[in-house]
Amino acid sequence: MGVHHTFGGGADAAVALNNVDFTVDAGDFVVVVGPNGSGKSTLLDVIAGSVVPDRGSVYIAGRDVTRWPAHTRAGLVGRVFQNPFTGTAPHLTVAENLALAVRRGMNGRWLHRALDPRTRQILANRLESLGMRLEDRLDTPAEALSGGQRQVLAAVMATLVRPKLLLLDESTAALDPRSAEQVIRVTREIVLRDRLTTLMVTHSMQQASRLGNRVVMMHEGRIVHDFGGVRRERLKVQELLDRFDELRNTDLLDDSAAELLRRQYV
Q1: pLDDT tens across 140-192, in order?
Q2: What is the pTM of this model?
Q3: What is the per-residue pLDDT across 194-217, written as a single tens digit (0 to 9) for each?
Q4: DSSP calls for 96-155
Q5: I need a surface site. Which of 116, 165, 235, 265 has the fewest CB within 10 A?
Q6: CATH number for the domain formed by residue range(s) 3-91+147-154+162-235
Q7: Long-range contacts, 97-103 (Cβ 8 Å, 24+)
Q8: Apex CA 137: angle with CA 136 and CA 140, to 5°?
């Protein structure tokens, strides 16, 4: 509530979040769009705990977590990053990565007999349902997986112990189109199956137009549009582009910036 954050100081100060009041209801799948530097990733960083806001409060599942460090929030927040190499331990096997995810969700308590046969079978069954054949690669180091497979593994790790909030930070931006579509399919299946409250940042207007039940547009650290309900159901790519034109027409974007956005998002 009322979250404000500035990077740097003096003449070099840059406002990343400008008194943002933003609520995600339980079960919502919210997609956040906006140009580079609009505050999207900073918003996720503040929620995850990797950035402490200058002022304002952050609540997750009714708890004030504003001053909680990121590792303390691990049992509440799952996050999938843009880089497929960020969310997994490269030298550990698929099974070992999943065991670590369970342990993290247990707030650091030891996972006894983490990889006994019964647990391995449970993990294999979980992976099999995703259709990526990762159940056959439990003993494969994560670094040997493709980018798409590794990002799917990161998504499973982030949701294996059900989080109160799942953060997807441009999770397909570094992938080729086919892999990106696979990751989106798997992520959507997990979110729907487990009824996860989800906040997704993306640069893809196609993804924004077809995913989630709410779309939020940010610019200069503020939320400038919030599409929900019937407006969200009718939302198309062209309308999102039109909203960027509106920003230009109200002098929030100059002509060159607006044209750059169109080239970026079409």
Answers
A1: 999 999 999 999 999 999 999 899 999 999 999 989 999 999 999 999 999 99
A2: 0.88
A3: 999 999 999 888 899 999 999 999
A4: HHHHHHHHHHTTT---TTTTSHHHHHHHHHHHHTTTS-GGGGTTSBGGGS-HHHHHHHHH
A5: 116
A6: 3.40.50.300
A7: 97/142, 97/153, 97/157, 98/123, 98/153, 98/156, 98/157, 98/160, 100/157, 101/156, 101/157, 101/158, 101/160, 101/161, 102/160, 102/161
A8: 160
CA atoms of 102 and 63, how far apart (whole Å):
22
Token digits for 95?
């099974």
What order do you get walking across the sheet with 77-80 strand by strand? Answer: 77-80, 165-169, 198-201, 29-33, 214-219, 222-228
Percent of residues, the chain, with pLDDT higher than 90: 64
The mean pLDDT value of the chain amounts to 87
What residues does each domain of the chain span? 3-91+147-154+162-235
Q: How would you class 254 by CB atoms within 10 Å of its CB: exposed for 0-12, middle for 13-18, buried for 19 or more?
A: exposed
Alpha-carbon Rg for the chain in angstroms: 19
Burial state string for 46-67 with b = 16 or more CB within 10 A and e = fewer than 16: bbbbebebeebebebeeeebbe
Q: Taken in order 5, 6, 7, 9, is the CA torsion positive or negative?
A: negative
Contact (Cβ atoms closer than 8 angstroms) between residue 236 and residue 266: no
pLDDT tens by residue, 90-124: 999 999 999 888 776 554 444 445 578 888 898 89
In this structure, what token pair is assigned to residue 85? 């190499």
Distance in angstroms (rounded) separating the CA atoms of residues 209 and 71? 33
pLDDT band at 248; cut points 50, 70, 90: low
Task: State residue 11's pLDDT score.
Answer: 75
Q: Strand 222-228 to strand 63-64: parallel, antiparallel, or no bridges (unpaired)?
A: unpaired
